[in-house]
């Protein structure tokens, strides 16, 4: 699938078919993440791939009950946990770039997945300390997000987006 088509057709998927994700496709989406740009090429991201049902159930428990992505982690045959080592990135004027680096890598993964017909859903509302405990993640490593990965069992309508006229200024900031 063309990149722009993947960008256009990607949706957050929260219902999945049980069909397994081919190892080759899993490698392709992780490769896409690996190729992301990062602050001084620090590549601070780390990914934990969780495929066992026990592991996926444990991850789902680390989300608030109100998180609509909770069930998706159990339904999807693969969960990917995005971690980052802040020491491998830098802060500049108070901005911690590990979050930016990791987010770019994750979005590469998400778009590659869409191009392969796989569904994902960014999940940020989680209890980090619980995930750290469940997956034996060292204290210095941050958990940035996670996503279920698998074949979609739904085809959600596009969520609304602001128009370009609301978000793009020309030459200088304009009052809204
Ligand atoms: C940083 C980030 C965190 C998110 N966290 C969650 C989450 O915890 N649970 C969830 O169900 N969706 C989560 N989402 C998905 C958004 O709700 C979704 O992207 C948004 O509603 C737009 O819908 P779309 O992705 O289908 O275009 C998150 C998205 C982003 C970018």
Give a brief description:
Helices cover 36% and strands 16% of the residues. With 176 residues, the chain is of the alpha+beta class. The strands form two sheets. A four-stranded antiparallel β-sheet has the order 1-2-6-5, sandwiched between helices. It has a two-stranded antiparallel sheet with strand order 3-4.
Helix percent reads 25-40%
Unique ligands: flavin mononucleotide
* Gyration radius, in Å: 17 Å
Q: Which structural class fits the helix and strand makeup?
A: alpha+beta
- Terminus-to-terminus distance: 37 Å
Looking at the structure, the CATH topology is NADH Oxidase
> Number of helix segments?
7
Q: Mean pLDDT across all residues, rounded?
A: 97
**H and E string:** HHEHHEEEHEHEH
- The low-confidence runs, each spanning 5 or more residues with pLDDT under 50, are none
What portion of the residues fall into strands of 2 or more residues?
15-25%
Under CATH, the homologous superfamily reads NADH Oxidase
Please give the CATH architecture. 3-Layer(aba) Sandwich
Structure commentary:
The structure is a single chain. Helix 2 packs antiparallel against helix 5 (97-115). The chain is an alpha+beta fold. It has a four-stranded antiparallel sheet, with helices on both faces. A hairpin with a 2-residue loop joins strand 3 and strand 4 (95-96). The protein has helices at residues 3-9, 23-34, 53-60, 70-75, 97-115, 128-135, 164-167; strands at residues 45-50, 78-84, 91-92, 95-96, 119-120, 142-150. The mean pLDDT is 97. The structure holds flavin mononucleotide. Flavin mononucleotide binds at residues 11-12, 67-69, 121-125, 159.
């Amino acid at each position: 699938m063309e990149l722009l088509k993947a960008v256009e057709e990607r949706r957050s998927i929260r219902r999945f078919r049980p069909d397994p994700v081919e190892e080759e496709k899993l490698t392709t989406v992780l490769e896409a993440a690996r190729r992301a740009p990062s602050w001084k090429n620090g590549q601070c991201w780390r990914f934990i791939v969780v495929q066992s049902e026990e592991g996926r159930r444990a991850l789902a428990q680390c989300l608030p009950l109100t998180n609509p992505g909770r069930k998706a982690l159990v339904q999807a045959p693969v969960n990917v946990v995005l971690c980052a080592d802040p020491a491998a990135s830098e802060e500049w004027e108070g901005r911690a770039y590990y979050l930016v680096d990791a987010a770019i890598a994750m979005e590469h993964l998400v778009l590659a997945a869409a191009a392969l017909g796989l569904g994902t859903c960014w999940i940020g509302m989680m209890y980090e300390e619980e995930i750290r405990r469940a997956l034996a993640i060292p204290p210095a490593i941050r958990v940035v997000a996670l996503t279920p990965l698998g074949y979609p069992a739904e085809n959600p309508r596009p969520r609304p987006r602001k128009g370009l006229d609301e978000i793009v200024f020309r030459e200088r900031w304009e009052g809204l």
